[in-house]
TrEMBL record:
Gene Ontology MF terms in the entry: alcohol dehydrogenase (NAD+) activity; zinc ion binding
The keyword Repeat appears for this protein: no
EC number: 1.1.1.1
Signal peptide: none
Protein name, entry field: Alcohol dehydrogenase
InterPro entries listed in its UniProt record: ADH-like_N, ADH_Zn_CS, ADH_Zn_typ-2, ER, GroES-like_sf, NAD(P)-bd_dom_sf
Domain of life, source organism: Bacteria
Source organism of the structure: Secundilactobacillus silagei JCM 19001
Reported cofactor(s): Zn(2+)
Cellular compartments per GO CC: cytoplasm
Annotated catalysed reactions: a primary alcohol + NAD(+) = an aldehyde + NADH + H(+); a secondary alcohol + NAD(+) = a ketone + NADH + H(+)
Amino acid sequence: MMTTSVSNLPTTMRAWAVTEPGPIDGEKSPLEFTTKPVPTPQRGEVLVRVLTCGVCHTDLHVSEGDLPVHQDHVTPGHEIVGEVVAIGPDAHRFELGDRIGVPWLRWTCGVCQYCRSGRENLCPNSKYTGWDHDGGYAEYTTVPEGFAYRIPERFDSQTASPLLCAGIIGYRAFQRANVPTGGRLGLYGFGGSAHITAQLAIDQGIEVHVLTRGKDARKFALSLGAKSAAGAYDLPPVKLDSSIIFAPVGDIVPTALEGLAPGGTLALAGIHLTDIPPLNYQNHIFHEKNLTSVESNTRHDGEEFLKLADRLDIHPETTPYAFDKADEALRYVKKGDIRGACVLKIGED
């Protein structure tokens, strides 16, 4: 198989690997900073030199074992911005030097009933970056070209990284929450995804109310234009048309449902959630309230969101971390009281 590449590609690279899933703030970190071979792009794939990689809560779930192991010693990371440095056989979409984004959704089968009906996010055979395949906490990674995104020129690499999961998943959750025009939206948890979703909603005339445990996060929410900010278990000051739970905490669900107006929708945005306690039909579900989950996204969601983010000039607030401080960044994400999103600086633009 013929591969086109830039000259002088290395054969090994620095990368993080999940050696034994466990608490990121425990005595022994589940992550190890190590050396791995530079991967070779297979048919239909490109090799990317990683410039930046966002630090997502899902990376924490992979590292701590909340999600089952899909690949031993996997390299986490799926909010990747990088430069195409090699092109595998039958890959024609990108050219060497192109700056592209590598997201969470790595591959779907294309033939199941979900793929054929425009719901590839529900594909039972789907594969994910940083879980089924090595991701972006590394100097190089590969991606099937059909699942990568072109990055709008407006965004530098550090700013673009959180858009590739926090932004896209927030957009999917926003859609699933059935937010009415000019309506009221509640956001539970206020990290990377929620603060992008807040900007998206406010820019479209939605009244946003934030409920989160972190005092600094509440101040941040108000600075972005939220109408109110309170604790995660508080009731909002007004009944809400829609709410999204970004925090992976099932205990919040009853309170969030109670805070909805009749006919309102609560969307659960995470891939992992602790157990939901018993619900009271009259208090939590009656009056035609809706409870739904969010599973990944389609490529169409991603393309649509990136165009919208470009048009509305959505800019994530980012905190940069050195490549060798990925475990430190994950500990900060776990703390919960964060301002925006953390991004690893890996390569030079």
